[in-house]
Fold:
Amino acid sequence: MHSKIFPEITKEITEEITEEIAQEYTLKFGGCSKDTPGLSGAGAVIYCNNKEIYGFSKCVGDNITNNQAEYHGLILGLQNAITQKVELINVYGDSELIIKQMRGEYIVNPPLLFLYQEAKNLEKNFVSIKYHHIYKLDNTRAYDLANL
Structure:
């Protein structure tokens, strides 16, 4: 009797483990400012195995620079990834400045310091987080959300 049940249980557990391991989460973020500074928006998209599972858009206010809007997009995405209990994530953005600041390659000047520190604090909620620079052409969904 056990020989009939055991393979089914083993298969079920193996499928659950394989599914959990196979989940690859990606965050793409963007920000836009109609003038610098000006009316600004932020957008973020979370993908699981290259399939969009969440998209977020937020007006971040007036008198905001483009770089500040980009940070708001990153923060928006990280907050929502944490809410979804994502632990391992690859983050992609078309702002080379933000990506390199988050990787510790560029110094952060005072106008961005508060937003940078907020993003770094959110970063602590992930087991693994890696930052990658991409071109705007590869970030159209996040950019479109930021422009809403």
About this structure: The chain has one domain: 26-147.
